[in-house]
Amino acid sequence: MPKIGDIQLPEFPLLLAPMEDVSDPPFRALCKEQGADVVYTEFISSEGLIRDAAKSVMKLDIYEKERPVGIQIFGANLDSMLRSVEIVEKSNPDIIDINFGCPVKKVVSKNAGAGILRDIPLMVKLTEAMVKHTNLPVTVKTRLGWDNDSIKIVEVAERLQDVGIKAIAIHGRTRVQMYKGNADWKPIAQVKNNPRMHIPVFGNGDVDSPEMAVKMRDEYGLDGAMIGRASIGNPWFFNQVKHYIKTGEHMALPTMTERVSAARRHLQMSIDWKGEKLGVFETRRHYTNYFKGIPNFKEYRMKMVTSDHAADVFAAFDEVEQKFGDHVFAR
Ligand SMILES: Cc1cc2nc3c(=O)[nH]c(=O)nc-3n(C[C@H](O)[C@H](O)[C@H](O)COP(=O)(O)O)c2cc1C
């Protein structure tokens, strides 16, 4: 069974992917309750952290109940990354993850995120220095390569392993692809099949059904699946995959009562974490996802997203629960 450093994981673990504005502590806690084996924070800027930018620092908050949790940082400057490691350690995460996969322009233009895939020696050098600078296990999340002509992930993964990372998660797309096309898991399987690899190799990209997770395990032989979009507003996805792996059957979809309960708890945890104003505001973006697939839902959603008062949002939740109760809608 795979391990990240000393962290023992179950067979074929499911990891919640780092997602900006999505993987906040309340969402991570809900995913953990619903079967995620490891959760990651959204990416946090090393430059923001060392300047004590409030927004970056807040992203370091973690709950005990979500462990094991990895804090993900990005950057391309060695000194800033090392100083961030020290700052991140104070939050006491279980894992430090390096983001070498973010494709957005403002990140790659500074050689950070997937930008570093154009400079593998720098990628290896940064990683090695970070591994040496902490006792926590360091993991890497990356893409196949910069573009189709520069896919060197087998070599890259081996070099990162050799400088001490404890696991690698690979999104089966290149930087140039962004999110287009289908994720290609074949190069990830090649990483896994490299006889020199001994750390866990997690696959990422397009796991959107239990069947896809099983495919990743059985046809591609990967050590676990990292799941992003399929979990948004749908923390049950992890247990759905686990149930399918165990029984070969699909788990019942959540009822509306369960969906309302998740949204309610998400909002309450957000309020407890950052106060009513910010909690109400920042949880708004999750409702479309929690309530996906419900016909004529606009009227209720508007009530949830137009008031600044938690009481109004909770009242809208109650109304939805009373109206739809045990109904089950496909997403
Ligand atoms: C809204 C959103 C935000 C994301 N933010 C991050 C991030 O902060 N760090 C990161 O490594 N990847 C980020 N990603 C990429 C995901 O972690 C993942 O690699 C990608 O979505 C593919 O997996 P999926 O098909 O399961 O969603 C983000 C993706 C989405 C959709």
TrEMBL record:
The keyword tRNA-binding applies. It is an enzyme of class 1 (oxidoreductase). InterPro entries: Aldolase_TIM, DUS-like_FMN-bd, DUS_fam, DusB-like, tRNA-dHydroUridine_Synthase_C, tRNA_hU_synthase_CS. SUPFAM superfamilies: FMN-linked oxidoreductases. Belongs to the dus family. PANTHER family: TRNA-DIHYDROURIDINE(47) SYNTHASE [NAD(P)(+)]-LIKE. This is tRNA-dihydrouridine synthase. It comes from Sediminicola luteus.
